[in-house]
Amino acid sequence: MRKKTFLQIVLFLLIIVFTFIFFYTYIKKDEKIVDIEKINKETKTDIITDIEYLSKDDDGNTYIIKAKNGIIDEENQDLIHLENVKAEINFDVNKKIFITAIKATYNNDNFDTKFSENVKLSHNYHNLECNNIDLIFSENYAKLFGNVKYMNNFTKLLADQIEIDLISRKTKISMYDANNKVKIKHKNDGLN
Predict the structure, then answer these.
(1) Do 38 and 103 reside in the same domain of the chain?
(2) Domain span holding position 80
(3) Do 58 and 32 share a structural domain?
(4) What is the pTM of this model?
(5) 92 shares a domain with 2
(6) Residues contacting residue 188 through CB under 8 Å, at least 6 positions apart
(7) Residue 85 shares a structural domain with residue 143
(8) What dihedral angle (degrees, nearest 10) is formed by the CA atoms of 3, 6, 7, 12?
(9) CB atoms within 10 A of CB 81
(10) 31 and 87 share a domain?
(11) Please, are residues 89 and 63 in contact by the beta-carbon 8 Å criterion?
(12) Mean pLDDT by 10-residue block, N- to C-terminus, for the chain (192 residues)?
């Protein structure tokens, strides 16, 4: 009988020890999570760091956007406001467009992205700077606007906006004021 009683006491103590370990390990962690959630609710920010989104269409074109951090929009959960943004568009077998910006708003649902502040775009030897780029994939449309400066090895172009149909690739370059004209300057005496 003594062996049986001793075994029961040992098992009972083991159950108590495991219960204590379980409680201390898992329940205490849940309290810490609640504290973090309270802090986030008090500051009203849900900052996400080192963000990367990847989308791919039926033709194999890819769109990758990365950011140092972002905040989910309180009114529309599909929108995330990004900072220190880098994007890459891969299309037509090994052709790439790179975009950088200080800020962007990305839509998780349709991949539409609005870049702003110090926006730069590069593709091979083509370079462009502007205040904003709106990539509206849901409508196959892109708009580059606000102090648009395009440069390549031979040409420099200044305009207010460029609109691009992403399917046909038709481009419209214009000024806000019809009295102003798009400025084009050729390098190397205009020889291309």
Answers:
(1) no
(2) 47-190
(3) no
(4) 0.72
(5) no
(6) 154
(7) yes
(8) 160
(9) 15
(10) no
(11) yes
(12) 62 59 50 44 67 85 92 91 94 87 94 95 93 93 94 91 90 92 78 49
